[in-house]
Design goal:
The structure holds two protein chains of two kinds.
Chain A: E1 9-10, E2 15-20, E3 23-28, H1 30-36, E4 39-43, E5 50-51, E6 56-62, E7 66-70, E8 75-80, H2 83-86, H3 90-93, E9 101-105, H4 117-125
Antiparallel strand pairs in A: 1-2, 2-3, 3-9, 4-6, 5-8, 6-7, 8-9
Chain B: H1 11-16, E1 20-24, E2 27-32, H2 36-45, E3 48-51, E4 56-61, H3 65-72, E5 85-91, E6 97-105, E7 112-116, H4 121-130, E8 138-141, E9 147-152, H5 156-162, E10 176-181, E11 184-189, E12 198-203, H6 205-217, E13 221-223, H7 225-234, H8 269-278, E14 282-289, E15 300-303, E16 306-316, E17 323-330, E18 339-344, E19 347-354
Parallel strand pairs in B: 3-13
Antiparallel strand pairs in B: 1-2, 3-9, 4-7, 4-8, 5-6, 6-7, 9-12, 10-11, 11-12, 14-17, 14-19, 15-16, 15-18, 16-17, 18-19
Helix pairs in contact in B: 2-7
The chains are: A alpha+beta, B alpha+beta.
Chain lengths: 127, 365
């Protein structure tokens, strides 16, 4: 069974969000990295790009396929995890320790639409 | 209702090994076991084995077998010696490809074995039967009675000797032998789809299960269809449905040398002669991107900002680390060194036309 971390928010498209004030750290879940297999490339936005809730902001790519990254919140990209440019496999080895982007949220109430760790674990069970 | 997926004789071994299974050509097939990268490297550096029992085996026998195979197959089987293997295609009238295949000339005057793509077995068989009128031949689809394992990699010859006790060092590239192993009749050819030296081993499902188990117990890496595709791609080998199809001809794919227009008439000959003399409008090329972004099948190829072609297969190449693809483009953009762009998620990435053989193959000739 894939791991979840208490205190994070989870989306149906398998992104996690860690809220630090009005900054959202966004990554992909253990379930997602397991399903993808070896990640060889992360297509990320640039600082100051805007992201919209439920819209794609990039992609994670395994050897076989590209999978869109869907933003769980709206806002402005404040930081991009450049370590992933050379070491995309960090998302496989430690998915919850490696955020992909930090977003300054324009509407933090969007977090309420996301799942808790327990709800997300139950959701994964149904897939 | 959807057809239930077929299983090869090795299905339970795959599941026991924890393979990721996915539907492919109507079969439930292993995509990967340990991981595509590890399996790819095993084949490039040591040896790996693939369950390719889903491939189709069509047998042609009878007095007119040679004449008939020459009629449906693009390569020339006239006076082809027994024990020889040839690659080629079956063509539609317009030069589009019904399928690409290997033809084996069996020993003892038994005729020919046609090894075809799993996804095309029933199409190929009915097409081949529809072309048999006037020929005294028996055409049989025995795909369900035959299974196949491919053992590929620089150590394959040694594994055959040490693990299976089969001395096949004198078997040259694109030839085969028929032998008995532990009482099982096997066909062993020095062929493959990885760009490495290696063998394809055909036998009954029971025989192939035994071969697979023996190799597995000796520690040979089982490899899934995931790395089968990354390996053949790097070696510049086409995959039906991508670089060859009903609408992509062998001449467009750069495989005209496997179409022997001088051997007499055969299905699709006129279209190929026309394409070879007049030239083709499109060609399959290799493209190397400058960036790390990964081109995928179906992505648009642009020249001067305008869409002109389509990616047919693309990867971050495991052996070279480069972002590479094969693509079909207008012939005017096919020259080596031509600057093109690939559109990836609404962004454009520059690349250069290069040879399709991205990786130096090491066949044993």
């Amino acid at each position: 069974m894939s791991k979840t971390i208490e205190g994070l928010y989870y989306s149906q498209s398998h992104e996690w969000v860690k809220a630090e004030g009005n900054i959202a750290l966004i990554g992909i879940t253990d379930y997602a990295q397991e399903a993808l297999g070896s990640i060889v490339y992360v297509d990320m936005p640039q600082e100051d790009d805007t992201v919209d809730v439920e819209q794609d902001f990039g992609a994670v790519e395994s050897v076989k396929a590209a999978s869109d990254l869907i933003s769980p919140v709206s806002g402005t990209v404040r930081e991009v995890n450049t370590a992933l440019e050379d070491s995309p496999a960090l998302l496989n080895t430690a998915p919850y320790e490696n955020w992909i982007i930090k977003v300054e949220m324009s509407d933090p109430s969007q977090l309420d639409n996301l799942m808790s760790a327990a709800d997300y674990a139950a959701y994964c069970e149904t897939l | 209702m959807e057809q239930p997926l077929s299983r090869t004789c090795l299905y339970y071994s795959h599941v026991t090994l924890g393979a990721k299974m996915e539907p492919f050509a109507g079969f439930s097939m292993p995509i990967q076991y340990q991981g595509i990268i590890e399996e790819h490297q095993a084949v490039r550096t040591k040896a790996g084995m693939f369950d390719v029992s889903h491939m189709g085996e069509i047998f042609v026998s009878g007095p007119d077998a040679e004449k008939y195979v020459n009629h449906i197959f693009t390569n020339d089987v006239t006076d082809m010696p027994e024990g020889k293997v040839l690659y080629g295609m079956m063509l539609h009238q317009d030069g589009g490809v019904v399928d690409d295949l290997l033809v084996y000339r069996l020993f003892g005057g038994k005729g020919f074995l046609l090894v075809v793509n799993a996804s095309n077995i029933s199409k190929d068989f009915s097409w081949a039967c529809s072309r048999a009128e006037g020929y005294d031949v028996l055409v049989e689809d025995l795909s369900e009675d035959w299974a196949e394992v491919a053992l590929q990699g620089p150590e394959a010859e040694n594994v055959m000797l040490q693990v299976m006790g089969l001395d096949v060092k004198d078997l040259v590239f694109y030839t085969f032998t028929e032998l008995k192993w532990n009482g099982y009749p096997l066909i062993v050819s020095r062929t493959g789809y990885t760009g490495e030296d290696g063998f394809e081993i055909y036998g009954s499902p029971e025989a192939v299960c035994h071969v697979w188990k023996t190799l597995l117990e000796a520690g040979v890496q089982p490899c899934g269809l995931g790395c089968r595709d990354t390996l053949r791609f790097e070696a510049g080998l086409p995959l039906y449905g991508h670089e060859l199809s009903d609408s992509i001809s062998p001449v467009e794919a750069g495989l005209g040398m496997f179409v022997k227009t001088d051997k007499g008439d055969f299905c699709g000959r006129n279209a190929v002669v026309k394409q070879k003399t007049e030239g083709v409008k499109r060609k399959v090329v290799g493209i190397e991107l400058k960036d790390k972004a990964i081109p995928r099948a179906g992505y648009p190829v642009l020249a001067g900002g305008e869409p002109v072609g389509t990616v047919t297969t693309g990867y971050r190449s495991i052996s070279t680390g480069k972002s590479l693809c094969m693509a079909i483009v207008p012939a005017g953009y096919a020259a080596l060194g031509t600057e093109l762009e690939v559109e990836i998620r609404h962004k454009r990435f520059p690349g250069t036309v290069c040879k399709k053989r991205f990786y130096q193959t090491s066949y044993k000739k």
